[in-house]
Design brief:
With 216 residues, this protein is of the alpha/beta class. It has 2 domains: 11-126 and 202-215, Dna Topoisomerase Vi A Subunit, Chain: A, domain 2; 129-193, no CATH class. It is built from 8 helices and 5 strands; from the N terminus they run βαβαβαββααααα. The protein has helices at 18-30, 47-55, 76-88, 129-137, 143-156, 169-179, 188-193, 205-215, and strands spanning 11-15, 37-40, 65-71, 107-110, 113-120. The chain has a 5-stranded mixed beta sheet with strand order 2-1-3-5-4, with helices on both faces. A hairpin with a 2-residue loop joins strand 4 and strand 5 (113-120). Helix 2 runs parallel beside helix 3 and helix 5 (143-156) crosses helix 6 (169-179). 30% of the residues are buried.
């Protein structure tokens, strides 16, 4: 059972899990943006429950900046609608129903609260944080080695001559890539903590712009 997370700061960032907390904490540090509390909601389907609990805390009334970041998975707009529903179900002083992903309309000041939503990997495509990190991987000289390995597994790893079907190919790709960089757990959050990702890379520009506009 997850322990209760208390709101400690007036700027909060809700993300799917601990790995995302570690990743975005390092990105915020890179951007020199202090005093943002990243909160692990316990999975993509738990935004509603976690937000409901957080919104009932006394210190929630002091929050003046709140951002939500989650994976698009199959469709970015569906992910956005899910987040809107999660917030709408709570008794709070603001609504995010007017936020959209088009034309940089994903940050709004609503009743004195700056609210923002970012859907990974790029606010429009299907996919997840891992897909953003794969874009970074493609700038690395060992990218072709990882791609050859994944292709080999796909073509030869199945039973009875059939192709192997990855349960989550993006996670498999980035796990394979990070396994070449880290001696311990090859997770995205750990990789960020170990400076595997160069956040100056242009693939991170859009998410950096979002965080800067939200919290600077």
């Amino acid at each position: 059972m997850r322990s209760l997370i208390n709101i400690e700061k007036t700027s909060i960032l809700l993300v799917e899990g601990k790995d995302e907390v570690n990743f975005f904490d390092m990105l915020l540090k890179f951007l020199n943006i202090p005093n943002v509390q990243s909160i692990d909601v316990g999975g993509v389907y738990n935004f509603k429950n976690k937000f409901s609990v957080l919104s009932k805390q006394e210190k929630f009334r002091d929050v003046d900046k709140i951002a939500f970041i989650r994976d698009a998975d199959k469709q970015a707009e569906s992910a956005l609608d899910s987040l809107k529903s999660s917030v709408q179900s709570a008794d709070v002083r603001f609504s995010i129903n007017d936020i959209s992903l088009a034309n940089n309309n994903n940050i709004k000041d609503i009743n004195g609260v700056c609210c923002g939503i970012y859907i990974m990997p790029d606010n429009q495509s299907s996919g997840m944080l891992e897909d953003l990190c794969i874009k970074y991987m493609k700038t690395d000289s060992i990218c072709h080695c990882v791609e050859k390995y994944i292709s080999c597994v796909r073509n030869n790893g199945g039973k009875n001559g059939e192709k192997f079907e990855f349960k989550n190919e993006s996670k498999s790709i980035i796990f394979s890539y990070l396994s070449t960089k880290l001696a311990d757990s090859p997770s995205i959050g750990r990789a960020a903590q170990k400076n595997v990702f160069d956040f100056n890379n242009k693939c991170f520009c859009d998410i950096k712009n979002f965080l800067s506009k939200m919290f600077s």
